[in-house]
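Contributing new records

If you add data, match the layout below exactly. Sequence lines come first and carry their own label; structure lines follow with theirs. Keep one chain per record. Anything else will be rejected by the validation script.
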Amino acid sequence: MRIVFFGSPQTALPSLKALLKAGHPIPLIITQPDRPRGRGQSLQPSPVKKYALHNNIPVYQPRKIREDSKCLEILKDIQPDIHVVVAFGQIMPSEIIYLPDYDSINLHFSFLPKYRGASPVQWAVLKGETQTGITIFRLNEKMDQGDILARKKVPIQPEENAAQLEERLAEKGADFLVETLSQIKTIQLAPQDHSQATYAPLIKKKDGKIDWEKDAPSIHNQVRAFFSWPSSFSFFHEKRIKIIQTKNLNQKTEKSAAPGEITHIDERGITVCCGQNTLLLIEKLQPENKKVMSAYSFSLGARIKAGDRFQ
């Protein structure tokens, strides 16, 4: 099929590569504009744009696709059979959604209608889900509410963080996308059960702040969910500390300790009291302006002792 591909981040690349490998011609890729990144804030292209340029595939970057009449004219000239959308990052207007013969389809990293929205992987981990999924659905004007072409459940590994899960879903989703496209002429669409919908709004940087009043399982899931962005963080002696890796100890402290108080330190890491007297082991962290290190190494350098407390 003649495809125009819409995508931007690293997680869209497996699908793009799989479509090309399967022999689908892709005359155009539409991706987000270059963004300032790094300390110098120099403009950097999206991973999808980098791949497209390296493989001599034309690219178009609308600043706001809903207001970009030129984009629509370009697509009309190309006359694609279908649009394939994987983490593009903008809401598309109906004129573009319904332009091709087979309209536009989206690969979403959840088992819809659960976790509609911008951050489905992070929210599934944050909520302690043991499984999620991949869904291919036909786009409409409403966010992630179109009829389903195909979906598949995917288990979440007990200690898997969001970055690892998203990478795995991207690889599985790529193969599933190619398989679904091969059957698109005969697939019976299934409407979503909107009464079962849950939502996964965009994660913000401030969401990473740890509330030690929450129990250890909840904080552990937060650390997993927000790796590698925005990262979970706390403050110790007025210094910001990113919490990189933790372990839920599934036990409670027998001592009288306040939430955030360090109860024990050994080579495994730093044990912290959380809400309901539950215990969380910090295994890896990143002090402000320093590299990631073991929590135990940090405790030695910072001379931390039991009774000290994360703010």
